[in-house]
Amino acid sequence: MVVGGSLSGLCAGLALARAGWAVTIVERAAGEPPGGAGLGLDRRLLGRVTGVDAARIPVVSGNRDSAAWGLVRQFLLEAALRTPGIEFIESTTVTGVREPGEAGRVSADSTGGVFTADVAVGADGVYSVMRRFVAPDHPAADYAGYMLWRGLVPEAEVPGGLDGRGRNLEVHGARGAQLVVYGVPGADGRADPGHRRVSFAWYDTSRTELLRQTGCLEGDAVVATLANDQLPAELIGELGRLARRYWPSPWDRCIGWAVTHGEVFGTPVAEYLPSRLVRDRVVLVGDAAHVASPMTGAGFQNALLDVAALADGLRGASGTDVPAALGRYEQERLPPVRELVSSGMAWGRSYLATA
Ligand SMILES: Cc1cc2nc3c(=O)[nH]c(=O)nc-3n(C[C@H](O)[C@H](O)[C@H](O)COP(=O)(O)OP(=O)(O)OC[C@H]3O[C@@H](n4cnc5c(N)ncnc54)[C@H](O)[C@@H]3O)c2cc1C
Protein backbone atom coordinates (compact mmCIF):
# COMPACT_ATOMS: atom_id res chain seq x y z
CA MET A 1 0.00 0.00 0.00
CA VAL A 2 1.24 3.49 -0.89
CA VAL A 3 -0.52 6.42 0.78
CA GLY A 4 -0.40 9.53 -1.43
CA GLY A 5 -0.50 9.62 -5.21
CA SER A 6 1.61 12.67 -5.95
CA LEU A 7 5.20 12.65 -7.24
CA SER A 8 6.72 10.49 -4.48
CA GLY A 9 3.78 8.08 -4.23
CA LEU A 10 3.54 7.50 -7.98
CA CYS A 11 7.31 6.96 -8.20
CA ALA A 12 7.13 4.53 -5.25
CA GLY A 13 4.27 2.65 -6.91
CA LEU A 14 6.09 2.38 -10.23
CA ALA A 15 9.40 1.32 -8.65
CA LEU A 16 7.79 -1.26 -6.34
CA ALA A 17 5.73 -2.74 -9.18
CA ARG A 18 9.00 -3.13 -11.11
CA ALA A 19 10.47 -4.83 -8.05
CA GLY A 20 7.71 -7.44 -8.21
CA TRP A 21 5.13 -6.11 -5.73
CA ALA A 22 1.39 -5.69 -6.24
CA VAL A 23 0.77 -2.07 -5.26
CA THR A 24 -2.33 -0.14 -4.24
CA ILE A 25 -1.90 3.65 -4.30
CA VAL A 26 -4.45 5.53 -2.18
CA GLU A 27 -4.86 9.24 -2.97
CA ARG A 28 -7.05 11.71 -1.11
CA ALA A 29 -7.70 14.09 -4.03
CA ALA A 30 -10.00 13.52 -6.98
CA GLY A 31 -8.24 14.46 -10.21
CA GLU A 32 -5.10 16.57 -10.03
CA PRO A 33 -4.15 17.59 -6.47
CA PRO A 34 -3.82 21.35 -6.10
CA GLY A 35 -0.48 23.14 -5.80
CA GLY A 36 2.72 22.61 -7.67
CA ALA A 37 4.45 25.15 -9.87
CA GLY A 38 7.94 24.32 -11.11
CA LEU A 39 10.79 22.11 -10.00
CA GLY A 40 14.23 21.03 -11.11
CA LEU A 41 14.08 17.55 -12.63
CA ASP A 42 16.78 14.93 -13.11
CA ARG A 43 15.08 12.94 -15.86
CA ARG A 44 17.83 10.31 -15.98
CA LEU A 45 17.40 9.48 -12.30
CA LEU A 46 13.61 9.46 -12.63
CA GLY A 47 13.81 7.03 -15.56
CA ARG A 48 16.32 4.80 -13.79
CA VAL A 49 14.24 4.56 -10.60
CA THR A 50 10.77 4.13 -12.11
CA GLY A 51 11.40 2.65 -15.56
CA VAL A 52 9.40 5.39 -17.31
CA ASP A 53 10.70 6.98 -20.51
CA ALA A 54 11.37 10.24 -18.67
CA ALA A 55 13.06 11.86 -21.68
CA ARG A 56 9.48 12.43 -22.92
CA ILE A 57 8.73 14.79 -20.02
CA PRO A 58 9.14 18.35 -21.34
CA VAL A 59 11.66 20.60 -19.59
CA VAL A 60 13.15 24.05 -20.12
CA SER A 61 16.89 23.46 -20.28
CA GLY A 62 19.27 26.19 -19.15
CA ASN A 63 21.58 26.13 -16.15
CA ARG A 64 19.37 23.21 -15.05
CA ASP A 65 16.38 21.24 -16.42
CA SER A 66 13.16 22.79 -15.07
CA ALA A 67 9.82 21.02 -15.31
CA ALA A 68 6.21 21.92 -14.60
CA TRP A 69 4.92 20.00 -11.59
CA GLY A 70 1.50 19.34 -13.17
CA LEU A 71 3.02 17.84 -16.34
CA VAL A 72 5.36 15.58 -14.35
CA ARG A 73 2.52 14.39 -12.14
CA GLN A 74 0.27 13.72 -15.16
CA PHE A 75 3.03 11.78 -16.92
CA LEU A 76 3.68 9.61 -13.84
CA LEU A 77 -0.03 9.03 -13.26
CA GLU A 78 -0.55 7.85 -16.84
CA ALA A 79 2.45 5.53 -16.50
CA ALA A 80 1.07 4.10 -13.23
CA LEU A 81 -2.41 3.59 -14.68
CA ARG A 82 -1.07 1.45 -17.54
CA THR A 83 1.33 -0.56 -15.35
CA PRO A 84 0.09 -4.07 -14.50
CA GLY A 85 0.22 -4.64 -10.74
CA ILE A 86 -0.69 -1.06 -9.78
CA GLU A 87 -4.15 -0.17 -8.56
CA PHE A 88 -4.81 3.57 -8.17
CA ILE A 89 -7.65 4.59 -5.85
CA GLU A 90 -8.51 8.30 -5.64
CA SER A 91 -10.91 10.34 -3.48
CA THR A 92 -9.92 8.23 -0.47
CA THR A 93 -8.27 9.66 2.64
CA VAL A 94 -6.21 7.46 4.93
CA THR A 95 -7.05 8.50 8.49
CA GLY A 96 -4.49 6.50 10.45
CA VAL A 97 -2.44 3.33 10.84
CA ARG A 98 -3.67 0.73 13.32
CA GLU A 99 -1.31 -0.35 16.07
CA PRO A 100 0.34 -3.64 15.06
CA GLY A 101 -2.24 -6.42 15.16
CA GLU A 102 -2.14 -9.39 12.81
CA ALA A 103 1.47 -10.61 12.61
CA GLY A 104 3.20 -9.79 9.34
CA ARG A 105 0.59 -7.29 8.14
CA VAL A 106 -0.19 -3.61 8.54
CA SER A 107 -3.68 -2.09 8.46
CA ALA A 108 -4.76 1.48 7.86
CA ASP A 109 -8.18 3.06 8.18
CA SER A 110 -9.52 5.26 5.42
CA THR A 111 -12.69 6.92 4.22
CA GLY A 112 -13.01 3.95 1.84
CA GLY A 113 -12.58 1.21 4.47
CA VAL A 114 -9.61 -0.68 5.93
CA PHE A 115 -6.54 -1.46 3.81
CA THR A 116 -4.27 -4.33 4.87
CA ALA A 117 -0.85 -4.92 3.30
CA ASP A 118 2.63 -6.40 3.81
CA VAL A 119 4.09 -2.92 3.89
CA ALA A 120 2.66 0.61 3.94
CA VAL A 121 4.60 3.44 2.28
CA GLY A 122 3.75 6.92 3.58
CA ALA A 123 4.10 9.28 0.60
CA ASP A 124 1.49 11.68 1.93
CA GLY A 125 3.55 14.85 1.95
CA VAL A 126 4.32 17.62 4.43
CA TYR A 127 1.15 17.13 6.50
CA SER A 128 1.60 13.35 6.64
CA VAL A 129 -0.83 11.17 8.57
CA MET A 130 1.54 8.21 8.24
CA ARG A 131 4.29 10.17 10.05
CA ARG A 132 2.05 10.30 13.13
CA PHE A 133 2.42 6.53 13.40
CA VAL A 134 6.16 6.46 12.64
CA ALA A 135 7.12 9.40 14.86
CA PRO A 136 4.28 10.00 17.35
CA ASP A 137 6.60 12.15 19.49
CA HIS A 138 7.37 14.51 16.54
CA PRO A 139 4.54 14.22 14.04
CA ALA A 140 4.36 17.68 12.43
CA ALA A 141 6.64 19.79 10.25
CA ASP A 142 7.69 23.08 11.89
CA TYR A 143 7.37 26.59 10.46
CA ALA A 144 10.78 27.83 9.29
CA GLY A 145 10.00 31.50 10.03
CA TYR A 146 9.45 32.60 6.43
CA MET A 147 7.07 31.94 3.57
CA LEU A 148 6.93 31.92 -0.23
CA TRP A 149 4.68 33.75 -2.62
CA ARG A 150 4.49 31.40 -5.56
CA GLY A 151 2.93 31.36 -8.96
CA LEU A 152 3.06 30.34 -12.61
CA VAL A 153 2.71 33.01 -15.30
CA PRO A 154 2.23 32.24 -19.01
CA GLU A 155 5.13 33.94 -20.80
CA ALA A 156 2.75 35.37 -23.41
CA GLU A 157 0.93 37.30 -20.64
CA VAL A 158 4.01 39.11 -19.28
CA PRO A 159 3.58 42.75 -20.34
CA GLY A 160 6.54 43.58 -22.59
CA GLY A 161 7.76 39.96 -22.70
CA LEU A 162 10.82 38.38 -21.07
CA ASP A 163 13.65 40.26 -22.87
CA GLY A 164 15.20 36.94 -23.91
CA ARG A 165 15.26 35.62 -20.32
CA GLY A 166 13.49 32.54 -18.90
CA ARG A 167 15.89 29.75 -19.82
CA ASN A 168 18.03 29.88 -16.67
CA LEU A 169 17.16 29.77 -13.00
CA GLU A 170 17.89 33.22 -11.50
CA VAL A 171 18.13 34.28 -7.85
CA HIS A 172 17.63 37.92 -6.82
CA GLY A 173 17.82 39.51 -3.36
CA ALA A 174 16.09 42.52 -1.81
CA ARG A 175 15.69 43.68 1.79
CA GLY A 176 14.11 40.75 3.70
CA ALA A 177 13.17 39.03 0.44
CA GLN A 178 14.64 36.68 -2.17
CA LEU A 179 13.34 35.70 -5.56
CA VAL A 180 13.95 32.42 -7.37
CA VAL A 181 12.59 32.46 -10.91
CA TYR A 182 12.86 30.19 -13.95
CA GLY A 183 10.99 29.10 -17.06
CA VAL A 184 9.00 25.85 -17.25
CA PRO A 185 7.05 24.35 -20.16
CA GLY A 186 3.60 25.68 -21.00
CA ALA A 187 0.45 23.77 -20.04
CA ASP A 188 0.56 22.13 -23.51
CA GLY A 189 4.16 20.95 -22.89
CA ARG A 190 5.81 23.43 -25.28
CA ALA A 191 9.21 24.60 -24.04
CA ASP A 192 10.11 27.09 -26.78
CA PRO A 193 10.24 30.85 -26.13
CA GLY A 194 6.81 32.46 -26.21
CA HIS A 195 5.06 29.27 -25.02
CA ARG A 196 6.73 28.67 -21.67
CA ARG A 197 5.52 29.72 -18.24
CA VAL A 198 7.50 31.52 -15.54
CA SER A 199 7.64 29.81 -12.15
CA PHE A 200 8.54 32.13 -9.29
CA ALA A 201 9.10 31.76 -5.55
CA TRP A 202 9.39 35.01 -3.59
CA TYR A 203 10.78 34.42 -0.09
CA ASP A 204 9.21 36.74 2.51
CA THR A 205 10.08 36.93 6.22
CA SER A 206 7.41 39.46 7.23
CA ARG A 207 4.10 37.53 7.16
CA THR A 208 4.08 35.29 10.20
CA GLU A 209 1.14 37.17 11.74
CA LEU A 210 -0.89 36.84 8.53
CA LEU A 211 -0.18 33.10 8.44
CA ARG A 212 -1.42 32.76 12.02
CA GLN A 213 -4.57 34.81 11.35
CA THR A 214 -5.44 32.75 8.29
CA GLY A 215 -4.99 29.41 10.10
CA CYS A 216 -1.89 28.30 8.18
CA LEU A 217 0.08 27.92 11.42
CA GLU A 218 -0.96 26.17 14.63
CA GLY A 219 1.69 26.91 17.21
CA ASP A 220 4.96 26.10 15.44
CA ALA A 221 3.35 23.60 13.06
CA VAL A 222 2.51 24.38 9.43
CA VAL A 223 -0.98 23.06 8.74
CA ALA A 224 -2.09 24.74 5.49
CA THR A 225 -1.13 26.94 2.56
CA LEU A 226 -2.69 30.29 1.74
CA ALA A 227 -5.01 30.27 -1.26
CA ASN A 228 -5.26 33.32 -3.48
CA ASP A 229 -8.85 34.02 -2.43
CA GLN A 230 -7.69 34.29 1.20
CA LEU A 231 -5.48 37.28 0.40
CA PRO A 232 -6.91 40.62 1.59
CA ALA A 233 -7.22 43.28 -1.14
CA GLU A 234 -4.75 45.64 0.65
CA LEU A 235 -2.15 42.87 0.68
CA ILE A 236 -2.58 42.26 -3.06
CA GLY A 237 -2.00 45.98 -3.65
CA GLU A 238 1.07 45.93 -1.36
CA LEU A 239 2.58 42.89 -3.12
CA GLY A 240 2.14 44.65 -6.48
CA ARG A 241 3.98 47.75 -5.17
CA LEU A 242 6.76 45.65 -3.59
CA ALA A 243 7.20 43.61 -6.79
CA ARG A 244 7.84 46.85 -8.71
CA ARG A 245 10.26 48.09 -6.06
CA TYR A 246 12.17 44.86 -5.37
CA TRP A 247 12.50 42.89 -8.58
CA PRO A 248 14.41 43.72 -11.74
CA SER A 249 12.82 43.71 -15.19
CA PRO A 250 11.20 41.55 -16.52
CA TRP A 251 10.32 39.85 -13.21
CA ASP A 252 8.67 42.99 -11.76
CA ARG A 253 6.15 42.95 -14.62
CA CYS A 254 5.76 39.19 -14.50
CA ILE A 255 4.98 39.06 -10.78
CA GLY A 256 2.88 42.21 -11.05
CA TRP A 257 0.73 40.37 -13.60
CA ALA A 258 0.41 37.33 -11.30
CA VAL A 259 -0.60 39.51 -8.36
CA THR A 260 -3.33 41.34 -10.27
CA HIS A 261 -4.66 38.20 -11.98
CA GLY A 262 -5.16 36.01 -8.91
CA GLU A 263 -2.19 33.77 -9.75
CA VAL A 264 -0.28 34.11 -6.47
CA PHE A 265 -0.58 31.79 -3.51
CA GLY A 266 1.28 31.67 -0.22
CA THR A 267 3.27 28.71 1.11
CA PRO A 268 4.61 28.82 4.66
CA VAL A 269 8.00 27.12 4.51
CA ALA A 270 8.00 23.99 6.63
CA GLU A 271 10.95 21.93 7.79
CA TYR A 272 11.03 18.43 9.18
CA LEU A 273 14.26 16.94 10.46
CA PRO A 274 13.50 13.23 10.92
CA SER A 275 14.92 10.98 13.58
CA ARG A 276 13.31 7.89 12.08
CA LEU A 277 11.80 6.82 8.77
CA VAL A 278 10.36 3.43 9.69
CA ARG A 279 8.20 1.83 12.36
CA ASP A 280 7.00 -1.74 12.18
CA ARG A 281 5.85 -2.18 8.53
CA VAL A 282 5.35 1.51 7.79
CA VAL A 283 8.02 3.45 5.88
CA LEU A 284 8.11 7.12 4.90
CA VAL A 285 9.38 8.60 1.61
CA GLY A 286 9.51 12.12 0.13
CA ASP A 287 8.06 15.05 2.02
CA ALA A 288 6.36 12.71 4.50
CA ALA A 289 9.85 11.57 5.51
CA HIS A 290 11.81 14.85 5.36
CA VAL A 291 10.97 18.43 4.51
CA ALA A 292 13.86 20.68 3.48
CA SER A 293 13.68 24.37 2.63
CA PRO A 294 12.83 24.76 -1.08
CA MET A 295 16.05 26.79 -1.27
CA THR A 296 17.89 23.42 -1.28
CA GLY A 297 16.07 22.64 -4.58
CA ALA A 298 16.46 18.94 -3.80
CA GLY A 299 13.26 17.69 -2.12
CA PHE A 300 12.03 15.64 -5.06
CA GLN A 301 15.54 14.51 -5.97
CA ASN A 302 15.79 13.01 -2.50
CA ALA A 303 12.32 11.48 -2.77
CA LEU A 304 13.62 9.63 -5.82
CA LEU A 305 16.67 8.45 -3.90
CA ASP A 306 14.34 7.25 -1.09
CA VAL A 307 12.25 5.30 -3.58
CA ALA A 308 15.34 3.82 -5.24
CA ALA A 309 16.68 2.56 -1.88
CA LEU A 310 13.30 1.19 -0.83
CA ALA A 311 12.64 -0.64 -4.10
CA ASP A 312 16.17 -2.09 -4.12
CA GLY A 313 15.70 -3.40 -0.59
CA LEU A 314 12.29 -4.92 -1.30
CA ARG A 315 13.18 -6.42 -4.70
CA GLY A 316 12.47 -10.13 -4.56
CA ALA A 317 11.65 -9.94 -0.82
CA SER A 318 8.77 -11.83 0.77
CA GLY A 319 6.43 -10.49 3.45
CA THR A 320 8.65 -11.89 6.19
CA ASP A 321 11.70 -10.05 4.83
CA VAL A 322 9.99 -6.66 5.08
CA PRO A 323 11.12 -5.54 8.59
CA ALA A 324 14.81 -6.25 7.85
CA ALA A 325 14.59 -4.52 4.45
CA LEU A 326 12.96 -1.46 6.00
CA GLY A 327 15.66 -1.35 8.69
CA ARG A 328 18.34 -1.23 5.98
CA TYR A 329 16.39 1.49 4.17
CA GLU A 330 16.39 3.65 7.29
CA GLN A 331 20.12 3.14 7.83
CA GLU A 332 20.86 4.15 4.26
CA ARG A 333 18.55 7.16 3.92
CA LEU A 334 18.43 8.78 7.35
CA PRO A 335 21.96 10.32 7.33
CA PRO A 336 21.72 12.02 3.89
CA VAL A 337 18.21 13.36 4.38
CA ARG A 338 19.12 14.75 7.81
CA GLU A 339 22.07 16.49 6.18
CA LEU A 340 19.80 17.92 3.46
CA VAL A 341 17.24 19.29 5.94
CA SER A 342 20.00 20.66 8.19
CA SER A 343 21.62 22.52 5.30
CA GLY A 344 18.26 24.16 4.49
CA MET A 345 17.87 25.11 8.17
CA ALA A 346 21.33 26.70 8.20
CA TRP A 347 20.46 28.72 5.07
CA GLY A 348 17.17 29.80 6.72
CA ARG A 349 18.94 30.96 9.89
CA SER A 350 21.35 33.17 7.96
CA TYR A 351 18.52 34.48 5.73
CA LEU A 352 16.40 35.39 8.77
CA ALA A 353 19.41 36.99 10.47
CA THR A 354 20.04 39.32 7.52
CA ALA A 355 16.35 40.11 6.83
C1 LIG B 1 8.70 26.27 -4.22
C2 LIG B 1 9.21 24.87 -4.22
C3 LIG B 1 10.18 24.55 -5.15
C4 LIG B 1 10.71 23.26 -5.17
N1 LIG B 1 11.69 22.99 -6.07
C5 LIG B 1 12.24 21.77 -6.08
C6 LIG B 1 13.29 21.47 -7.00
O1 LIG B 1 13.68 22.29 -7.80
N2 LIG B 1 13.83 20.23 -6.97
C7 LIG B 1 13.39 19.28 -6.09
O2 LIG B 1 13.94 18.16 -6.10
N3 LIG B 1 12.38 19.53 -5.20
C8 LIG B 1 11.79 20.75 -5.17
N4 LIG B 1 10.81 21.02 -4.30
C9 LIG B 1 10.32 19.96 -3.39
C10 LIG B 1 9.37 19.03 -4.11
O3 LIG B 1 8.34 19.79 -4.76
C11 LIG B 1 8.74 18.10 -3.09
O4 LIG B 1 9.75 17.50 -2.33
C12 LIG B 1 7.96 17.02 -3.77
O5 LIG B 1 7.03 17.55 -4.70
C13 LIG B 1 7.22 16.23 -2.69
O6 LIG B 1 6.32 15.36 -3.22
P1 LIG B 1 5.53 14.33 -2.31
O7 LIG B 1 4.84 13.44 -3.29
O8 LIG B 1 6.45 13.71 -1.29
O9 LIG B 1 4.49 15.18 -1.46
P2 LIG B 1 3.16 15.95 -1.95
O10 LIG B 1 3.35 16.55 -3.27
O11 LIG B 1 2.75 16.83 -0.81
O12 LIG B 1 2.07 14.79 -2.12
C14 LIG B 1 1.38 14.18 -1.10
C15 LIG B 1 0.16 13.50 -1.69
O13 LIG B 1 -0.49 12.75 -0.67
C16 LIG B 1 -1.87 13.01 -0.70
N5 LIG B 1 -2.34 12.81 0.67
C17 LIG B 1 -2.04 13.58 1.75
N6 LIG B 1 -2.61 13.09 2.84
C18 LIG B 1 -3.27 11.98 2.46
C19 LIG B 1 -4.07 11.03 3.16
N7 LIG B 1 -4.27 11.15 4.49
N8 LIG B 1 -4.64 10.00 2.46
C20 LIG B 1 -4.41 9.88 1.12
N9 LIG B 1 -3.68 10.76 0.42
C21 LIG B 1 -3.12 11.79 1.07
C22 LIG B 1 -1.99 14.44 -1.19
O14 LIG B 1 -3.26 14.72 -1.74
C23 LIG B 1 -0.87 14.49 -2.23
O15 LIG B 1 -1.32 14.06 -3.50
C24 LIG B 1 10.24 22.28 -4.24
C25 LIG B 1 9.26 22.60 -3.31
C26 LIG B 1 8.74 23.89 -3.29
C27 LIG B 1 7.67 24.23 -2.26
Structure description:
The termini are far apart. The longest helix has 33 residues, at 322-354. Helix content is 33%, strand content 24%. The chain has nine helices and 19 strands. α2 runs parallel beside α8. The radius of gyration is 20 Å and the shape is globular. The strands form five sheets. The protein has a six-stranded mixed beta sheet with strand order 6-2-1-10-19-18. The protein has a five-stranded antiparallel beta sheet with strand order 12-13-14-11-17. The chain folds into two domains: 2-140 and 272-354, 3-Layer(bba) Sandwich (FAD/NAD(P)-binding domain); 142-269, D-Amino Acid Oxidase, Chain A, domain 2. The chain has 355 residues and is of the alpha+beta class. The model has no long low-confidence stretch (mean pLDDT 95). β18 (278-279) and β19 (282-284) form a beta hairpin. Bound molecules: flavin-adenine dinucleotide. Flavin-adenine dinucleotide is lined by residues 3-9, 26-29, 33, 39-40, 93-94, 123-126, 129, 148, 150, 201, 267, 286-287, 294, 297-301, 303.
Element layout with pairings:
Blueprint: E1 2-3, H1 7-18, E2 23-26, E3 38-40, H2 43-50, E4 60-61, E5 65-68, H3 69-81, E6 86-89, E7 94-97, E8 106-110, E9 113-117, E10 120-122, H4 130-134, E11 142-154, E12 170-174, E13 177-184, E14 197-204, H5 208-213, E15 217-218, E16 221-222, H6 233-246, H7 251-260, E17 265-271, E18 278-279, E19 282-284, H8 299-314, H9 322-354
Parallel strand pairs: 1-2, 1-10, 2-6, 10-19
Antiparallel strand pairs: 3-5, 4-5, 7-8, 8-9, 11-14, 11-17, 12-13, 13-14, 15-16, 18-19
Helix pairs in contact: 1-3, 1-8, 2-8, 6-7, 8-9
The site of flavin-adenine dinucleotide has 34 residues, from helix 1, strand 3, strand 11 and helix 8.
